[in-house]
Design brief:
Number of strands: 2
Distance between the termini: 51 Å
Structural class: mainly alpha
Order of helices and strands: HEHHHHEHHHHHHH
Transmembrane segments: 66-87, 138-171, 177-197
InterPro entries: ExoD
Protein name: Exopolysaccharide synthesis, ExoD
Keywords: Membrane, Transmembrane, Transmembrane helix
Organism: Actibacterium pelagium
Largest sheet: 2 strands, antiparallel
Number of domains: 1
Shape: globular
Number of helices: 12
């Protein structure tokens, strides 16, 4: 199996997990969703969460704030090298409608096919570097806090999710090049936030 095939399989498995969760009940909890994706690592979870903010479902009131909180929790997990993502029980009990999950799966599924062309396992020392892990943690913490407090600004959650998407893709495929792009892509987000605040 080629690295490209392995990458496509990774994303296929992620979407299969989402599909299963979406069709088990009329609604699922945030905790169930995070558990289903989190067992495959931080990368797939970041891909789906950032996709939520990029897709129209991200405009649902309260959705950016909810995603922002999970970003912060993942940042804490990476910062302290915790094996499993911890979430408060109250947050885990938040329900998500099946229609919302199905919309995410249907709209994000084309990403799986494009990933095969764009991603490959390369420069993996970047992925394994503790310095880059700390950088990812800080970026997630800052991005989550910004989205939570001023995510109501039209278009801001979309812009702030692009670098998270790239980081998630890089982690999932162990692609150091895409990971580096994600770290540098935060620059436009910083400029936009500064423009909004000042």
């Amino acid at each position: 199996m080629t690295p490209e095939d392995e990458t496509e399989d990774q994303f296929s498995e992620v979407f299969d997990d989402l599909h299963s969760v979406a069709h088990e009940t009329e609604a699922t909890t945030l905790g169930e969703l995070v558990d289903a994706l989190g067992r495959r690592g931080t990368g797939p979870l970041l891909v789906i969460l950032s996709a939520v903010l990029i897709l129209p479902v991200g405009m649902v009131p309260g959705m950016p704030g909810l995603v922002a909180i999970v970003f912060v929790l993942i940042g804490i997990q990476l910062l302290f090298v915790q094996p499993k993502l911890w979430m408060p029980a109250r947050l885990r009990r938040i329900t998500i409608k099946t229609e919302t999950l199905k919309s995410i799966v249907d709209r994000a599924r084309p990403l799986r096919r494009k990933a095969r062309l764009l991603l490959s396992e390369r420069l993996t020392f970047i992925i394994d570097s503790r310095a880059f892990q700390l950088a990812n943690a800080l970026i997630l913490l800052l991005t989550g806090c910004v989205i939570f407090f001023i995510g109501f600004v039209p278009g801001l959650p979309f812009v702030l999710s692009i670098h998270i998407l790239l980081i998630g893709l890089g982690l999932t495929a162990r692609d150091g090049v895409v990971m580096s792009l994600g770290l540098t892509a935060i620059a436009p987000a910083i400029w936009l936030v500064a423009k909004v605040l000042f």
